[in-house]
Amino acid sequence: MGDFGRPVLLLHGLTFDRTMWWPLAAELTRGCTVVAPDLPGHGDSPARDEISIAGLIRDLATLLNRLDLHRAPIVVGHASAARLATAFAETYATHHVQTVDEMVGEVPEYFRPYTEPRHDKALLTAYASWPWEAEAVFPHLADPAGFAGDIQALLP
């Protein structure tokens, strides 16, 4: 979404997919280029036998490079992907890292379908080396416009 502007890389937590970001992405269309990939084995992304954080960091850097984005991204990591977002920023130029790991408000009923995890034993096995959060939180769904405003405040 958005043809120009600061890239915003949205990373969903394990057992979710890129659709969890759609309400936020709709709010970020002005001034941002939103990139919300499915992690391997999630959504439309093919499964892998094993997924390392280092390998995903390289994959994400390749994706951003192929999209020809010439600015350092804002990286947002949800729950278990917060570690991925932080590791990405330790390896590649990043404008800012935002982690979604604390609850802010209640998710409205019409956004609750985005909060449903997908349980797949093979998927969980492939991500066995990842740290797991006890509970997923969704401040970006509780108030997409407010969360988008926080992201947009990071823009120059």
Global morphology: globular
Q: Portion of residues in helices?
A: 25-40%
Strand arrangement within the widest β-sheet reads 2-1-3-4
Mean pLDDT: 85
The tally of strands reads 4
What ranges have pLDDT less than 50 throughout 5 or more consecutive residues? none
Name the beta content range: 5-15%
Amino-to-carboxy terminus distance: 19 Å
Instruction: Tell me the structural class.
Output: alpha/beta
- In sequence order, what are the helices and strands, one letter per element? EHEHEHEHHH
Radius of gyration: 15 Å
- Count of DSSP H/I helices: 6
Biggest sheet, open or closed, and with what strands and sense? 4 strands, parallel
Structure notes:
- This protein is α/β, with parallel strands linked by helices and 156 residues long.
- It has 6 helices and 4 strands; from the N terminus they run E-H-E-H-E-H-E-H-H-H.
- The protein has a 4-stranded parallel β-sheet, with helices on one face.
- The longest helix is centred in the middle third of the chain and has 14 residues, at 53-66.
- The model has no long low-confidence stretch (mean pLDDT 85).
Short overview:
With 156 residues, the protein is α/β, with parallel strands linked by helices.
Key features?
156 residues, alpha/beta, 4-stranded parallel beta sheet, 6 helices, 4 strands, 32% helix, 13% strand, globular
Task: Compile the SSE list and pairings.
Elements lengths: L5 E6 L10 H6 L4 E4 L17 H14 L7 E5 L2 H11 L4 E5 L20 H6 L12 H4 L1 H9 L4
Parallel strand pairs: 1-2, 1-3, 3-4
